[in-house]
């Protein structure tokens, strides 16, 4: 009989947990409240400032990452 495992969240850790469960012969079920996987790393380009900086902002609005060109 295959053991069933619940994974909460389809972020980076959740996806890694799913992979480990599958490698161990377990049957994972992942529960994610959004429509996409990726958790806090679901970035979208929000604006470009004078062609020098791209501001990426996560959907949670808690983190911002600034990358120079």
TrEMBL record:
Could you tell me the EC number(s) of this protein?
A: 1.-.-.-
Q: Which Pfam families match?
A: FMO-like (PF00743)
What are the alphabetically sorted keywords of the record?
FAD, Flavoprotein, Monooxygenase, Oxidoreductase
Question: Which EC class is this protein assigned?
Answer: oxidoreductase
Coiled-coil region(s) at which residues? Answer: none
Respond yes or no to whether keyword Oxidoreductase is given for this record: yes
| Cofactor(s) this protein requires | FAD
Q: Extract the SUPFAM superfamilies matched here.
A: FAD/NAD(P)-binding domain (SSF51905)
Q: Which InterPro entries match?
A: FAD/NAD-bd_sf, Flavin_mOase-like, FMO-like
Source organism, top-level taxon: Eukaryota
Q: Which GO terms describe its molecular function?
A: flavin adenine dinucleotide binding; N,N-dimethylaniline monooxygenase activity; NADP binding
Similarity-based family: Belongs to the FMO family.
Spell out the protein name for this chain.
Flavin-containing monooxygenase
Species this chain originates from: Catagonus wagneri (Chacoan peccary)
């Amino acid at each position: 009989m295959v053991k069933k495992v619940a994974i909460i969240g389809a972020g980076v850790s959740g996806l890694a947990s799913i992979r480990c469960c599958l490698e161990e012969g377990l049957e994972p079920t992942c529960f994610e409240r959004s429509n996409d996987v990726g958790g806090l790393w679901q970035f979208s380009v929000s604006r470009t400032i004078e062609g020098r900086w791209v501001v990426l902002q996560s959907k949670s609005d808690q983190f911002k990452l600034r990358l120079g060109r």
